[in-house]
Write a structure and sequence with these properties.
Number of helices of chain B: 13
Radius of gyration of chain B: 21 Å
Structural class of chain B: alpha/beta
CATH topology of the largest domain in chain B: Rossmann fold
Order of helices and strands of chain A: HHEHEHEHHEEEHHEHEHHE
Number of domains of chain A: 1
CATH architecture of chain A: 3-Layer(aba) Sandwich
Strand order of the largest sheet of chain A: 2-1-3-4-8-7-9
Distance between the termini of chain A: 55 Å
CATH class of chain A: Alpha Beta
Helix content of chain B: 40-55%
Shape of chain A: globular
Structural class of chain A: alpha/beta
Largest sheet of chain B: 7 strands, mixed
CATH superfamily of chain A: Thiamin diphosphate (ThDP)-binding fold, Pyr/PP domains
CATH superfamily of the largest domain in chain B: Thiamin diphosphate (ThDP)-binding fold, Pyr/PP domains
Strand content of chain A: 15-25%
Strand order of the largest sheet of chain B: 3-2-4-5-7-6-13
Number of strands of chain A: 9
Oligomer: heterodimer
CATH architecture of the largest domain in chain B: 3-Layer(aba) Sandwich
Strand content of chain B: 15-25%
Number of strands of chain B: 15
Chain lengths: 264, 356
Amino acid sequence: MSNNIETAKFRPEICVDENLVYRKPSTLLPEPFHYCPGCGHSTVHKIFMEVVEEMGIENDIIGVAPVGCSVFAYHYMGVDMQQAAHGRACAVATGIKRVQPDKYVFSYQGDGDLAAIGTGETIHAANRGENILVIFINNGIYGMTSGQMAPTTLEGMVSTTSPHGRDVKTQGYPLKMSELIAPLPGVAYVTRQSVHKPANVRKAKKALRQALEYQKQGLGFCLVEIVSNCPSNWRMTPAQANQYIDEKMLAFYKLGDIKVPEVK
Amino acid sequence: MGEIKLMKGNEALAEAMIRAGCDAYFGYPITPQSEVLEYLSKDATQRTGMVVLQAESEVAAINMIYGAAGCGRRVMTTSSSPGISLMQEGLSYIASAELPCVLANVVRGGPGLGTIQPSQADYFQSVKGGGHGDYRLIVLAPSSVQEMVDFVRLSFDLAEKYRNPVMILTDGAIGQMMEKVELFDQMPRKTEFPDWATTCKPKDKERRYITSLHIQPEKMEEINKHLQAKYKQIEKDEVRYEAFNLDDAEYVLTGYGLGARICRKAMDILREKGYKVGLVRPITLFPFPKKVYEELANRVKGILDVEMNAGQMVEDVKLSVCGKTRVEYYGRMGGMIPSPEEIVENFEKLFIKGEA
């Protein structure tokens, strides 16, 4: 490393705040991500921790990590966290929020966790209007167990348990959790974002901030779905995977706000 | 002297929960314990500010317990056998993450949906693990409505002392019966929480996290060794039992909870008949009072274990006496309750007529 810096003619005099264009938020722990190259998790971790830093709430927030690729989210997010059983993050978050209603509470869950094994906990937490934020990473596949079909897997999409492509006649249809949850009266805010392009990253970050602002106002359950990728298990390069998001995933999982609180 | 009341077991348990300064209860209706949630729903929140929430399932309830216990709060749930089965995954996580909490299992007859009548068939599930992995619950077995009250406070203390889930293993009869109870005074809810609790990152300290995941087997083995050392300590310091008429005993009846209560009557009848019979009632099923049986094994002619199941605790009695005395079992299953007369008859058949 030091060699590279020497070659680049390191000039400490330019390292001043006014020239800073990029840095890691202080809320992100100094731990290298275990995520695969090109995976959306690290981007979402980073922008969410930026939001926490910008709002100055790192001493007022508790998170819940799921089972799935982001099971180790607590290794990276420098706030108090609990790791939940598979699918139970919304129940765990409920337990946390009910005894500490004045704190921000979030869960961070994948599609297998939230939309398959944890569907019941998710819907009921939403329906009770639990004043929590659920960050829902939808990449249409089980990443951690290496590429099985998820409830969100697109029709015809190949996975290790749908090797001939998902046959909706026998394997069911891809589930749109955001649209399923949005009509419930306890739900304040549902939006679908992505992090596959810089502009989308900025929008996703804005949505995460918005959701925490709504939580502060006590408006109820907020779900920020982020359509993501899985280069390793989609058997694609990161660039191909992001192209697949653009062409296939977003054609089915349309980006944008699905429910926003009524303006008073 | 505390307040004296005539109360149903389940309601007394709920009242004790409020008075013990419980911060949150998460539960789901199931017979024969639904009175707990009903009682708490009346005015517990108004009285102490505690959270009372009806969850969508026992699976959700135990995970709400995990979340709130992880915040260092006094938390409790109750259920009955099929519901407790659903909680086993959560209990394994709670035991591994070392979160203090209290559960009561108002046991009904099984297996399957079974019956709503009282049973003791969940002994193995409660005492030997229940969920996956090597872990233990501290298990207390009340045999009266008074003990439903007393054991709630004791359970919270033990749970917090050892950072371990504690189960009150009772049954449908004790849950439903009415008895006179003396209630302890209202205790304040906690205002300070332990350092490990996720109460939000302190400004000048490291953040905390609660997990049961340790991918490296070397680390996971360390966690296991730590848990086992804790269970050893519990076995050393927390054994509780009650004994009657052991001094001159030639035979001993043994049972827990409601079974032990019936055994007391059977013991009295047997004593009237001239047999020198004593009684051992384990109060803690884990830790099991091995030593009292070990000691008895050297001087009694036999032990009759009475349970409302197919013979579960009898295995621990046998392990304790190590073949040094005769251990027999008598019991009823599927929600049936043995009568004192049945116990007397079976005692005579097994030990007296068999001996002749």
